[in-house]
Amino acid sequence: MDQISVPVNLEQVSKIFRDPKTKSDVHAVREAQLEIGGGELVTLLGPSGCGKTTMLRMIGGFELPTRGRIRIGGEDVTFLPPNARATATVFQSYGLFPHLDVFDNVAYGLRVRKIAAPQIETRVMEALDLVGLKALARRAPGRLSGGQQQRVALARSLVVRPQVLLLDEPLSNLDALLREQMRVEIRRIQKTLGITAVYVTHDRVEAMSLSDRVVVMKEGVIQQVGPPSTIYERPDSQFVAGFVGKVAFFPVEVANTTAAGPVACTLDGKPVMAGSVAPGVGKKAMLMARPESLRLGNPGEGACDGTVSTNVYLGSSVESFVATEYGEILVQIDDPSMSRVRAEGSRISISFDETRVRLLPVAG
Amino acid sequence: MFSVLRGSYEKTILQDKKELLLALTRSAPGENGDVEAWLEEARKTYPALHLLYVRGIPGVDEIQEFSLDAELKALWQARQEDKAFKTGIEAASYLETFVMPDAVRLGSGESLLIFSPVLNAEGDTARGIVVAAVDETVLTSFNNLTYALSLIAFFVFALGFGIATFSRDPPTGYAILVLFSIVLLFVAYPLFTAVRLTFVQEGRFSLAIWKDILTNRQYLGALAGSIQLGALTATLSTIIGFLFAFFVSRTSMRGKKLVTALATLPVISPPFSLTLSIILLFGNNGLITKGLLGLENFTIYGLGGLGLVQTISMFPIAFLTLAGVLDAIDSTLEDASLDLNASRWETFMRVTLPLTMPGILSAWLLVFTNSLADFANPLLLSGSFRVLSVESYIEVTGMNRLGNGAALSILLLLPTLTAFFVQRAWVAKKSFVVVTGKPSGRLSDLASKPMRIFLLVFVVLTSLFIVSLYGTIVAGCFVKNWGIDYTFTTANIVEALQRGREAMISTMTLAGIATPIAGFIAMIGAVLVVRKQFPGKRLLEALMMTPFAVPGTLIGIAYILAFNEPPFLLVGTGAILVICYVIRELPVGLEGGVATLRQIDPSIEEAASDLGADQATVFRTVILPLIRPAFISSMSYTFVRSMTAVSAIIFLISARWYHITIQIYNFSENIRFGLASVLATALIFIVLAVFGLMRVIVKKSEHLEKTVTVQ
Ligand SMILES: Nc1ncnc2c1ncn2[C@@H]1O[C@H](COP(=O)(O)OP(=O)(O)O)[C@@H](O)[C@H]1O
Ligand SMILES: [Mg+2]
After folding, report:
1. What is the spatial distance between Cα B91 and Cα B708, in angstroms, rounded to a whole number?
2. Which residues of A touch B (CB under 8 A)?
3. Phi and psi dihedrals of B237, rounded to 5?
4. How many Cα atoms are found within 13 Å in the side-chain-facing hemisphere of B517?
5. Could you tell me where the beta strands, DSSP code E, fall in B472-606?
């Protein structure tokens, strides 16, 4: 199954729904600008109701954008119906045809395309083989487990050789173990086929582990686009930082800037250093710290003092919750040899790994 | 559309004028009479009419013109040679009346000219012509109304057309267009025509009909009768229905299935059948009244008998509604109450009854509206008691007063609409039925022992009564002359099948044609309502649902009014019956389709479309198989209801296209109860067979419904 990898472009795409009850407008997507490269897997990540599904459905042709253009492989498809687009969607609820068995479900798209029967047979079996369901070809979908249904849905979408694969929270109905397994599976298949894919999820772990790039959305607006590592380590905003991982914020003031390297700041008068470009001397900023960029020390040593309230033992690490004047702060201790973990109730101080903590603009 | 509306309207008005003129010209003086005096006389009587009297036929005789209206005379002299004038003169010389198609300017306004012949004493030759000018402003004000409505219709059409042409989804566009055309033409237009007729008298806007309706004691009596009957039936039905529902849903006695089946039988039984058996049992020559009790002055005809028959036919509606409500109430609530040491009676009064109250009112209203719209039972059984539905039928068929008939039927709509809005406003708000899924196992019997015995006896007796009613009809088939001579005979069967054969065949043919059409329209309508967004959706939905609320008599009257002339000359054809069946059963099919579709995950259809299927393919390969149960039950419902229709089609049947139920009615009217019984029995078996068949087919596809799960 060879596929041509085509890019997908969203140009200033907006979608406004009219709420039938309140008669008010809902801006589901606002002026989204996005270039997805051929063969790339991009996830749309954001809290529920932020417009991910709407964006995906516009690419699939299920919703018309209120404004803007959508191109697939350079061709303007904005007004094309779903059946005229080279996209295939894996729905959150799978949308399997209950009156057809697994084979006929997968064969549906080929039959609609009037492909010859022997060829349908081979292609369907090939697709079922790809998702490991060859043995269940004659089962009714109602008699499959969630994970199997999910695979049928995937096979059904892939068998028509779409140029773009769209997945809307495909794993949300599966249990945790299966989810991890299918995640790997989907990534493997997508890589093998080299197909362009857009994947909607609200699960940051899923987004991080799966995608070439992550698109973080909030209230219909794209907040940041970038590879998982960038999104995690160098978020542009407090929202993105908080959404993609555990994080603590400290309000600081910029004290001194140099051309390169860490910026000197003050946290309630105490000097601290942080990465990233600074907004200018004397300006207020937020210092963002991931749990793994914090260290515990004796009181007075670090940037802020506090009391260990709870230690959570996780095997490969320990998470210490520390009560400070900036709220409860989570510190991850990677090597949980007892010497580095402080007892609950002990006074400690927190210090920053200055190469890993970053300055962010104060959320307006 | 516009020209049709306008045409039919003008025709009504001009018809009046033409007749008036013919009468006038008959009084016109002959060769040597005093024309001036006649003209003076005519002006006094009809000031709105401008007349010109032409003695002799132009081109044939020497002519002489008389008129009190100089302008009309001048016009005549100036344009005598015009083509339209010539046609008028020629028509008159052939003894025909002719209306000039285009209005002419006369004085300050537009007028239509009507040419009418003056006959000789023998009445076989034209001796002259009377030309009348009719002020057209009367027409214009109505035309404006019609025009506005047509504009709206056109607008909707254009919209649909636009959707079809420019949308991404033309099949949907066409479906919308087709459905809109159907409901506009066969729902909106006939009803509009009927309503309009009630406001017209002699071609002018007039409230005369309504004044008559609302002051005439006879009509008011019918209104009161309908309401009285409705209230009686609704109250009795609700009580009986509640007892049955309570028995089935709240006690642990056996035989519930059988009781449910028996109790629902009357809903699907053909019209006239229960009335027939009531007459056989309690009528003037009834088995019980005369045969057993020897009563002389007793009559079943009237409010009492009607209430009895309607209650038996309609309590199942209340029963089904209330059983649904009771089943939806989690019985653990009652168990909790009992557990808190309330007695059974207290529990019933404080928990069960309040929770069921909205359901009780719903059931009452539902039966009430059904009783008002009922036509078949009162037709046979009302005697001197008057109800609106029959009254409007008599107005139309007996008195030829279509306007009054339409107005009475519209009057019938008012209580129905009131009931509907009460239902909406009150019941919906008050509905605090706690739906917590399935009743969680019956723990305790809510009824005490004496109560249980009472319930059991009541339910059994009622059921036996229902069974015996059906038994009576069957017995009626084999009795020579009911009430007089109870000898066994099979002659009835032979005669009934012979005489009823054609009606039976035509009914089955037409119902058979209507069935798939109604099924498809209902399902396509359901898809549009549930899945598609388009301008005018609300209107389309409302129009499709309208026939549900409109009494059959009104639909029948509206159809004769709307479809009795070209291009919609449908009266007398089989088509009008088919259309009537389809339109009347559309709402129920639509509801069924909508309910089923709402349970189907939309992403199933989206997936099909995504995989390359166009809208028509999605409908055929995915939607239709999935809503098959609704589709089939909608179709069998349409078939049965069409076969058993009475109220609307009684206006629409013709000698060629007769209807089996009307045949039953005619037999009963002529006291040929044996023949009526045979046809009624046949109809009952057909109905049972169709529903049985439907159950078998639907059951086969039941695994489908189970797999259609909404996530
Ligand atoms: N068909 C619709 N009609 C009206 N509002 C809608 C419709 N679909 C989505 N919305 C609204 O648009 C917003 C974004 O929805 P959605 O794209 O489903 O969010 P997500 O998938 O990120 O949870 C929500 O506020 C939702 O209520
Ligand atoms: Mg979503």
Report:
1. 70
2. 60-62, 64, 79-83, 87-89, 91-99, 108-109, 112-113, 140-142, 153, 156-157, 160, 173
3. -60, -40
4. 19
5. 479-481, 485-488
Q: Are B233 and B371 in contact (CB under 8 A)?
A: yes
- For the domain made up of B2-140, the CATH class stated in words is alpha beta
> Which pLDDT does position B148 carry in this prediction?
63
B526-568 pLDDT, tens per residue?
Answer: 999 998 888 888 899 999 998 888 888 999 999 988 887 666 7
Same domain? For A116 and A156 the reply is yes
Residue range B216-281+294-469 forms a domain whose CATH class is: mainly alpha
Q: Which structural domain, as residue segments, surrounds residue A37?
A: 8-233
In A, minimum Cα distance to B705 occurs at A98
Cβ within 8 Å, pair A98-B708: yes
Top-confidence residue, B164 or B667: B667
Q: Is residue A289 part of a domain?
A: yes
Bin A73: left if φ > 0, else alpha if -120 < ψ < 50, else beta: left
pLDDT for B575-591, tens place per residue? 899 999 999 999 989 98
For residue A57, the ligand 1 atom closest to its alpha carbon is 17
Please tell me whether residues A206 and A267 are part of one structural domain.
no
Round to whole Å and give the CA distance between B225 and B390. Answer: 11
pLDDT at site A243:
92
Quote the pTM value: 0.73
ipTM: 0.83
Domain count, chain A: 2
CB pairs under 8 A between A and B: 86
Of residues A259, A258, A265, A299, the one with CA closest to residue A282: A265
**Closest-lying ligand 1 atom to the alpha carbon of residue A29:** 14
Say whether B610 and A140 touch across the interface (CB within 8 A). Answer: no
Residue B711 has pLDDT above 60, yes or no: no
